[in-house]
Predict the structure.
Amino acid sequence: MQTWLLTDREEDLHKAATLLRDGKLVGIPTETVYGLAADALNGTAVASIFVAKGRPMDNPLIVHIAQMQQLSSLVTEIPEQAKALANAFWPGPLTMIFKKADCIPQEVSAGLDTVAVRMPSHPVGRRLIELSGCPLAAPSANRSGIPSPTNARRVVEDMDGRIAAIVDGGDCAVGVESTVIDVSGERVRLLRPGAVTVEMLQSVVGDVEIDDAVLNQLAEGATAASPGMKYKHYAPSARVILVKGTPTAYAAYVNAHADDGVAALCFDGEEQELTVPYLTYGSRHDAAQQAHRLFDALRRLDEQGVRVAYTACPSPEGVGLAVYNRLLRAAGFEVVDLG
Ligand code: TXA
Ligand code: MG
């Protein structure tokens, strides 16, 4: 299959929208990461997303909308707390899980009775939803299991020849996937941290429960509240080992493990003490910058043939919780605590 590389000019967006209406797959920019989009109400089109990504069929997809009124046809009920959260954070990097309406195909909800919905803020992503005239089901546009793409070049790497088109909307501002919360029960529950932080959610709804899977490895055989959390995720081919400690302790530990194919993934400005090759992913004190750069840095480890990446551990506060959550999974929960 020939994959068209389209710009964000209006005529190209019309082409992309036509492809989407015809049941084809298009890589689209959002403010978090690139998505692999299809008409959410076309089960056959949605099924082809799973093939292109190599995604397990039991992992449900997020439905992207451009207008608040699209929500009511997709869900059976919009709880008051969800209305308040939508008012505060939509359009933006927040996904909410509702009880699903009958129009949602099985392929989207993967057999659950709920559906995840978000309204992205990226102008190009939003314009594509408007022009296509349909809600768009879109997981991240990576091959299943590896870090999400945060620019169009990374989507080309993963999806060239597998999908109809990729729309280049530039670098993703946030860099990690949306915050996912379940609003279908009594308490709002955080399933995946993102740029809409726990503190921001609490400022609107007061009480937020944090699902165990945000910071812990799921026990063998346990049922995941969010099926995506049970797979190895965000992982480059390189073995990632997360190292907690001061900059000095970190550098000493990494240097002591110097070997062929060993590298450091460290914070900006903390590379001076290292005797091994390194990549950086932002300032220790700027979690938003870490989020913005993390996935590209993980992919660069593989490009540079790194075998083992000792990775400086981010502080899990604010947006840092999202960075830490992704790195825990990239590391398969392999953490060294230097105390
Ligand atoms: O920022 C994002 O959310 C990006 C962009 C493209 O919008 N999308 C994204 O989709 O990250 P994906 O498929 O890579 O991650 C969706 C996550 C998965 O962990 C999935 O299991 C969970 O949301 N999810 C989707 N629907 C769900 C549902 N009904 N119940 C529980 N979890 C759900
Ligand atoms: Mg994903």
